[in-house]
Amino acid sequence: MTKLLLTALAASAAFACGSSPFDPPVRRLGTLQTTEDGFAIEVPDTVQARQSFEISAKTTGNGCVSFGGTEVEVEGSVVEFRPFDLDVAFGRDDVFCTEILKVFDHAASVQIDQPGTVTVRIHGMAHTSDGNLGEIVIERIVVVS
Q1: Could you report the average pLDDT of every consecutive run of 10 residues in the chain (145 residues)?
Q2: How many Å separate Cα 67 from the centre of its chain?
């Protein structure tokens, strides 16, 4: 009975403070996986007009992170690629996560109709020199023939 009462008190205290262990995860830009050569992203150098090509990026997380989808927007000669992850601990210090490395594959198919050059912008998060996460944008130029 005492254990049940303590559990109920802890749960009501968490709800009273505005957070709950059952709060939904935060959908945020994914943390881009780093490699020896930079980031784990793939964008072709050259593509054919009116033919689909793939853009991909790998993101990473710990036990509190899961795949959150990928968004792509094409406007004129710019492609915006955003890999998202779901994070139950983002912005919270009351959640403990297992320190395992999880890798998520994000990919999208894109088609450009006009020959020329296209700028692909990959949005993501990366660790800064002070250990915090910060938003970055990596640009690649694609020649469309």
Answers
A1: 42 44 85 89 97 97 96 96 93 86 97 97 91 91 97
A2: 8
